[in-house]
């Protein structure tokens, strides 16, 4: 995979590498949402649960038409059936909850492993390749620090972009927390 040879006419940026690293960061922050959507697709209410819910509704409707005082034996029999079916529904819901948790954990691990492997690959193979080169005066006090490990001033490599992205995500999370806004941003660190 050659991401280096997609440079602009001025040679100051590697747009493909820039967008790949940006996409990795975006996907990393969207993993919880993607996992939630995947779990909703994979783990659904079974046909048995739907039938049991329908039976409970039917029995409750039947129970509403029976007088407790006049037909106590029939009323108690229907109530026992409702209790038994409700207990089975609770058991099925626990099984579905366990299944949901297992699928969610597995999907999260798979997403993060793929994302981590991609980032490690990019860091190892493109650590000396500029993602973007900015004018030196834009980065005056921090230019030499941001140019590590290449030493070229105003040179933004993948490590620098990851550091900036990580710091920005943490700052946004802290700001949202202090403002009382609920924001879910996750990182792969």
Automatic annotation (TrEMBL):
Superkingdom of source: Eukaryota
Protein's UniProt keywords contain Endoplasmic reticulum: yes
Assigned keywords, A-Z: Endoplasmic reticulum, Membrane, Transmembrane, Transmembrane helix
Residues that span the membrane, as ranges: 17-43, 103-126
Pfam families, per the entry: CHD5 (PF04420)
Cell location: Endoplasmic reticulum membrane
Keyword Transmembrane listed: yes
Membrane topology of the entry: Multi-pass membrane protein
InterPro entries from the UniProt entry: Get1, Helix_hairpin_bin_sf
Family recorded in the similarity comment: Belongs to the WRB/GET1 family.
Protein name in the entry: Guided entry of tail-anchored proteins factor 1
The encoding gene: LOC106471738
